[in-house]
Specification:
By secondary structure, this protein is of the alpha/beta class. It has 25 helices and 28 strands. The protein has an 8-stranded mixed beta barrel with strand order 21-22-23-24-25-26-27-28, surrounded by 4 helices. A 6-stranded mixed β-sheet has the order 14-15-13-18-20-19, sandwiched between helices. Helix 11 packs antiparallel against helix 12, helix 17 runs parallel beside helix 19 and helix 23 crosses helix 24. 34% of the residues are buried.
């Protein structure tokens, strides 16, 4: 067994400019050959700063004292063997690429050098090959350095972002796969936890009141970075640890956290709402919204010369008391018996501070993007905002579609020409008000172009929209609009369409609806009275790059039926356990091209779909069949098989598995089932049950993608597994060096203390192996060992 005694060290190297100095380390027995290499590089326009080394002691000193861009050695060197050169570079975890020069052009020499870790092995006197290899190697080095620089910047920015979240007064939590992965102190206190770490890995659904769980469930599905969840604001009732309920407005949006998609829950601690009902004949739905700088409020209600019920005064005082001094309060007067429109502030005996802020009161409808402005002015941005909110609503929550309705006033140009712009605008406003009064559904409107009003109406199907538009055309034709002293008859044309979760964008939606109105040639329906309704073609505004769950499930079924899914095997090699003959089973497609609208990463999507249980069972049957054949020649072979979240929740899986293993006559001890950390954390109870059942059958269990959560050891404390496979991000952390590497190594040490067998996947280079071995990793897997193949043919007993 080879032992790596050097301490791993990762040091940042400065970027080498294309025209900069090439820091070259040469390990050669013959100084004349070394001089020839330097001359060759200088002749190729490299500015070379070279050191020639011929002893291990000098090599160690130079590696520690300087930054190197390239090492060149002689494969058959005697004074400083190439093996020693490569081991020294690898032992110090340095990113110094090496090119070895060989006396032979035999393939055996090339394989030997590559196994040592060389980038290229070049036969002697192949000068052009050598120069091309050097250029390629330096280009790859530069790309790695640039990538590392950006990774460090990203990590630094993410750290600063987390510090800002920690110090925020707003309650913030991050969610992945339905569980909390981060929460700051205000959020944890909101739920009733004194320590934010206590809420980590807790299911979100357990903290939401049962009457609000249907609203939050759509957000708890696995996230896809390519299908981002739209921004939403929903009302939720959180349940604290003592059973109390807290009603809050929660802003939800998708972000990237530690390299993966996550949801951010933001509960602003800066708004207070008080509701006062209008009097004086106004409708109950009429409201006035105002913004007040609460730091300027010094109110003595007793000084207002206005008769208000005592209960009203007490409620206003209570709400003003709850407003944070530094925040802007949004006070919505709609529940108290008070008509602000009939109060003349100038006639009231009010404290001077109130009089000074009275002029700063601004209707929120001027600011809220989803509300129409008081005057129906042309403002395309308001339309886009209204449609964006409708798309977000369709993609989340109850998923209800909305209707886009564009109405053109056919007499608008004539009114502007014969009377005035003001008259025409007032007529449009009267028309908009008339339309709003014809439905009880939530409705907002705006103006994108002169003479056309755009309405977004929630909760309409296309058929309902057609009927509503047809009826509206009739009602408008029969109605007399009064503007000032004038009575006017109007007629309208309308185009309609649905706003759904597949609507490509607000711009596409309104553009197509207006174009349909202009072209007047799609879905024409003559309405009595001469008015017309046009239905826009849904295909023109559907984003077919967004794939539905139904399509993915259907495609998964076709793959199973036509046997278009294959399996591949990748070896897992023991660094200390020479008897280990492990393979991971990977699912691979047998087709080269995907049908239209099926994404390239369909395996990941299928694995999260309802058909995942069927695919798991098919893979298991195929795998244990091959394992039985393999045991005839290699009885120690063990397989690691992945299970989906759907299978974790499948109560019928364990009885089925027991029967399948018995039928195949395969030793269950040679099968290890892998559960993803996120899935196991999300379904703790189900995972416990499944692990117990698998152990009873005789199978082992591994946890994969380990280390993604803020406190990954919490899951291990609740679930007993035999192996822990690190997530790819942790391997990248080790490669990157610095604090990220130290944190990962500490986690591996903790796993070792807990006597967990640790597997490191994605090992693509031999330079990583010493660090992993010294850190306590027992098994490695990756393309450096062997790429996934259709057969279990790795030579575990061959000396490397």
């Amino acid at each position: 067994m080879v032992q790596f005694l050097s301490s791993p060290r990762s040091e940042r190297r400065p970027s080498m400019a294309k025209e900069g100095t090439l820091n070259l380390l040469i390990a050669y027995d013959d100084s004349n050959d070394a001089s020839r290499i330097i001359s060759l590089l200088e002749g190729a326009s490299y500015e070379v700063d070279a050191e020639v080394v011929d002893s291990a002691e000098e090599l160690a000193s130079l590696l520690e004292s300087r930054h190197w861009d390239l090492a060149i050695g002689h494969l058959q060197a005697a004074t400083l063997p190439a093996k020693k050169l490569m081991a020294s570079i690898r032992g110090q975890s340095l990113d110094v690429p090496a090119i070895l020069i060989s006396n032979s052009n035999e393939i055996v020499s090339v394989v030997e050098g590559i196994r040592m870790g060389a980038t290229y092995v070049i036969p002697e006197d192949e000068d052009q090959y050598f120069l091309l290899a050097t250029a390629s190697t330096l280009e790859q080095l530069e790309q790695r350095r640039v990538q590392l620089d950006w990774k460090e910047r990203y990590s630094s920015a993410e750290t600063r972002c987390e510090e800002l979240m920690d110090s925020s007064k707003n309650a913030i939590a991050l969610v992945q796969d339905g569980t909390y992965i981060y929460a700051n102190e205000p959020f944890s206190q909101l739920i009733g936890y004194s320590d934010p770490d206590d809420i980590i890995m807790a299911p979100v659904i357990d903290t939401i009141d049962s009457s609000f769980q249907d609203e939050i469930k759509p957000f708890l599905k696995p996230l896809d970075a390519e299908k981002e969840v739209g921004k939403s604001t929903i009302s939720l009732s959180f349940v604290t640890t003592d059973g109390q309920k807290t009603d809050v407005e929660t802003n939800i949006c998708q972000i990237e956290y530690q390299g993966d998609a996550a949801l951010q829950f933001l509960i602003k601690n800066s708004t207070a709402r008080n509701v006062v009902t209008n009097i004086g004949g106004a409708k109950e739905s009429d409201t006035t919204e105002i913004e007040i700088d609460s730091s300027a409020i010094e109110l003595e209600l007793s000084e207002i010369d206005l008769e208000l019920p005592e209960i009203v005064v007490d409620e206003i005082k209570l709400e003003l008391h709850e407003i944070d001094e530094t925040d802007v309060a949004e006070i919505k007067f709609e529940s108290l018996d008070l008509d602000l429109s009939e109060i003349d502030l100038d006639t009231l005996e009010i404290d001077e501070d109130i009089a000074s802020i009275a002029t700063e009161i601004t209707p929120l409808s001027d600011k809220a993007p989803a509300q129409q402005t008081p005057a129906l002015t042309v403002d395309p941005q308001v339309t886009l905002n209204n449609i964006d909110l409708a798309i977000s609503s369709a993609q989340s929550g109850d998923g209800k579609d909305s209707l886009i309705l564009c109405i053109q006033s056919e007499q608008d140009e004539q009114i502007r020409r014969d009377t005035s712009e003001d008259n025409a605008n007032q007529t449009l406003e009267a028309l908009a008000t008339f339309v709003v009064e014809q439905t009880n559904n939530t409705i907002v409107y705006s103006c994108d172009k002169q003479g056309v009003i755009n309405f977004v109406i929630a909760g309409f199907t296309l058929q309902e929209g057609k009927q509503f538009a047809a009826s509206l055309c009739q009602q408008v034709a029969e109605h007399t609009f009064q503007v000032g002293a004038q009575n006017m008859l109007r007629s309208i044309s309308a185009s309609i369409g649905l706003i759904t979760k597949n609507t490509a964008s607000a711009q596409v939606c309104i553009g197509q609806c207006l174009k349909t109105l202009e072209d007047a040639d799609t879905g024409l329906s003559n309405i009595p009275g001469g008015d017309k309704v046009y239905v826009m073609d849904a295909l023109t505004q559907t984003d077919f790059s967004v794939d539905s769950e139904e399509k993915i499930t259907l495609f998964g079924q076709q793959l199973l039926e036509k046997r278009l899914i294959g399996i591949a095997f990748q070896p897992i090699v023991g660094l200390n356990d020479e008897s280990a003959e492990f393979y991971e089973v990977l699912m691979r497609p047998k087709i080269e091209e995907y049908p239209e609208n099926i994404p390239p990463d369909f395996i990941g999507k299928v694995f999260d779909s309802p058909i995942a249980t069927e695919i798991d069972r098919w893979v298991i049957l195929e795998t244990i069949k091959k394992l039985g054949e393999k045991h005839k020649t290699a009885p120690n072979t063990c397989l690691f098989i992945n299970l989906s979240a759907a299978t974790i929740n499948d109560e019928k899986f364990s009885p089925w598995l027991k029967l399948a293993i018995r039928t195949a006559n395969t030793p269950p001890a040679n099968i290890t089932f892998q559960l993803r950390e996120n899935d196991a954390g999300r379904y703790i109870a189900q995972s416990k049950t499944l692990i117990r059942q698998l152990n009873a059958i005789g199978c082992k269990v591994a946890m994969t993608h380990f280390g993604l959560s803020s406190n990954p050891l919490l899951v291990l404390e609740k679930l007993a597994v035999n192996f822990v496979k690190l997530d790819r991000q942790l391997i990248e952390n080790i490669k990157a060096g610095g604090e990220a590497q130290e944190e990962t190594q500490q986690l591996i040490s903790l796993l070792k203390e807990k006597e967990q067998h640790c597997i490191a996947p994605f090992v693509e280079s031999p330079t990583l192996i010493p660090t992993l071995w010294q850190g306590g990793v027992e098994y490695i897997q990756g393309h450096y060992i062997q790429a996934p193949g259709s057969e279990m043919d790795y030579g575990f007993n061959e000396e490397d």
